[in-house]
Design brief:
254 residues; alpha/beta; Metallo-beta-lactamase, Chain A; seven-stranded mixed beta sheet; 14 strands; 26% strand; globular
Amino acid sequence: MKLTFLGTGTSMGVPVAGGFSFDKESSDPRDFRYRVSAWVQTEQTSVLIDIGPEFRFQTLRSGIKQIDLVLVTHEHTDHIGGLDDLRPFNYAQRSSIPVITLPRCKEAIYKRFYYMFGPNKTPGSVDVEFLNAKEFQPFVFKDLRITPFPVLHGNMPIWGFKINDLVYITDASAISEKTIELIKNCKILVMSALRLGPKHPTHFTIPEALEIVEKISPDKTYFIHMNSQVKHAEHEHHLPENVFFAHDCLVLEL
């Protein structure tokens, strides 16, 4: 299994539009971050985790040619804003694309992308099919065993995904003991870690994320969803052994 980080940045990206970042813009390409998304490939399938506003650019630079399933963590724009760019994949694959997400997010997609659904569907618009899944209940998709699980994004329950021995968590600020038991001792943990500080109401800071890493005890951890305060070269060497900052286009072999 191969994991490609399509984007590792915050909801506004790094640097933000207009160059309004509070921190000096970095010349390190690893500090240029599209909105968070990841691509899982195996011999049998191609799966996307979240589909943000830069999805078109992400497909071009990573070479995505096939999408068999989309996993959506929640309905914020940085996680679903690229849905319309599934159109060429529909045309090339000549089929709808299945999507798995929590019920609240499904309803939000219906409302926000109303022109893709129902009797008044716009001809030629994106064709997706929602599949049913329940948290803590694993399902098999081709050669992947996938388990959705809940985490909290502030007061909002969202989903993370356990995919074989990979665990993917974004936009989290709290994780229950039940979820920790499910994902404990995984091989690869991908988790959001917004900034060095101060504390944020809806996202783990890096120190808070490191406390969760200790509880989960994965073989390796890769942080995502970092803002412009986090500089790869300056700050990664302060992380514990086997904890790293992910960066856009990083590829992991599992």
